[in-house]
Amino acid sequence: MFVNQKFRGLNGDLGNFRFIFELGAYSLKPQKNNDIRNGVTTADLVAINKHILNIDTFTTPHLHLAADINRDFKISTADLIALRKVILFINDTFPNNNSWRFYPKTFNINQKEPEKLVIKDSIKIILNKIINVDFIGLKVGDLNGSAKPNSLITAEERSIITKK
């Protein structure tokens, strides 16, 4: 049996996933781990720094999840360092994290202690049960929502050729 479903990013963009199953129950877990610098800027570093210094703290659990760069369930200078290394092209991955995180739309993310929020990032699918599958996508490190989830951002190599 083939199943096509959609997931929606925080900015409303849709993505698709397709999976095949034959017997039993399956776990569906969307992943996207490319284009790590998409939407990540020094403005995001400033926002994390202000939160750590208690100058301008995060007001939504989504911001806590996006700022937890190393996925240790707290926001600290270690997250700042990990994000800075990506921005400066020192690292091409986040430690212990993907560039995007997903959670089922039905998951209650509005908890009282967002720094202790553990995301349930998959859905169990049981054959012969019709369910509505909908995920929310969150770009790690992007606190101002500037990431383009469906873009194919690439760098173009340029050089100056001089004749002798």
Which descriptors apply to this entry?
18% helix, 164 residues, two-stranded antiparallel sheet, 3 helices, alpha+beta, four-stranded mixed β-sheet
Please give the structural blueprint:
Blueprint: E1 2-9, E2 14-20, E3 25-28, H1 42-52, H2 61-67, H3 77-87, E4 100-104, E5 123-126, E6 135-139
Parallel strand pairs: 1-6
Antiparallel strand pairs: 1-2, 3-5, 4-6
Helix pairs in contact: 1-3
Gist of the model:
By secondary structure, the protein is of the alpha+beta class. It has three helices and six strands; from the N terminus they run βββαααβββ. It has one domain.
Form type: globular
The radius of gyration computed from the alpha-carbon positions, rounded to a whole number of angstroms, is: 18 Å
Work out the number of β strands.
6
Report the oligomer.
single chain
The helix content, as a percent range, equals 10-25%
Number of helices: 3
Q: Which structural category fits the helices and strands?
A: alpha+beta
Give the number of domains: 1
